[in-house]
Amino acid sequence: MDARWAAEEKPPHVSSGTTAVVAVLRGNSLVVASVGDSRCVVATSDGDDLSGISLTTDHDPSLPVEKARITAAGGYVVDGRVFLDADGTQLGLAMSRSLGDRRLKAAGVVSTPTLQTRDVKGDAYVVLATDGIWQVLGVDAVARALEGDEADAEYSCKNLIIEATALWGLEVSDYRDDITCMVVKCNPLTLTDVQASYVSVAAVRKHPVKERAPEQ
């Protein structure tokens, strides 16, 4: 995508970009590629409970390896964001890797994904979601929310979206970050188990938010 835009005489939206997380299943081997702060998490059995394991690492500009690349390219990391100037007034991207954001490529923002592979034979679910999920529900909270939903991945996906939306309303008022989620049920895996859902505002308003223990 970035290469195609770079070849265009007048590329669109030079200050806009996106995160991406892609998972490809080959047999029992799941290969995950990520750019930005969208995540892929597996929910796996931990005795009688499900626990979450992240297969991605958020590309935070403050991470030493990311900050070193940005600084070497002439960019600046101010309060965890990438800027074109030391005063932190020009742009300000909250991630060090993305698709698009062409104005910040000169500041060290790249589109190179990080890769991870996992054998999912013993896992219950794979969850791919944007940071609107992860900012209000942690990795383990998402895994716990899936417990008891083994028969229906679509139901699980809707519940996660509803609960995250409701929590944004309680904790951040009217604003919420992008909430996009896909839940894939493992073992057995069939095409009908791959579900993405859109949820109405009315459904969110009716959804009770449960008390949650702090993330460890």
From TrEMBL:
GO molecular function (one): protein serine/threonine phosphatase activity
Q: Which domain of life is it from?
A: Eukaryota
Q: Where is the PPM-type phosphatase domain?
A: 1-186
Q: A Pfam family name for this chain?
A: PP2C
Indicate what this protein is called per its UniProt record. PPM-type phosphatase domain-containing protein
Q: What is the lineage of its organism?
A: Eukaryota, Sar, Stramenopiles, Ochrophyta, Pelagophyceae
